[in-house]
Write a structure and sequence with these properties.
about 80 residues, mainly beta, two-stranded antiparallel ribbon, two-stranded antiparallel sheet, 4 strands, about 10% helix, elongated
């Protein structure tokens, strides 16, 4: 799948509290609510944050350090259909 290329746009920088911010034009909007930002020389690069797979998410959790109680699992109640 080939990425769409848009022409350069002049954007405004502004202050938001103590941070510098940039208004991102609609055609450059990123999906989701998180992004990764890095600086390479004089370039500032902003990319969408990659969503973790379920296995990566589960692997990032700390194991539970507790014993679960025994649960008596009797036969199911009869059901009339």
């Amino acid at each position: 799948m080939e990425a769409t290329t848009y022409p350069e746009r002049h954007v405004k920088l502004f202050k938001n509290g103590r941070n510098q911010a940039v208004r991102i034009p609609r055609e450059f909007e990123l999906p989701g609510e998180d992004a990764i930002m890095r600086k390479e020389g004089e370039r500032l690069i902003i990319e969408p944050a990659r969503r973790k797979s379920l296995l990566e998410l589960l692997d990032s959790w700390e194991p539970l350090d507790e014993e679960f109680p025994e649960i008596e699992d009797g036969p199911p109640d009869p059901v009339d259909l």
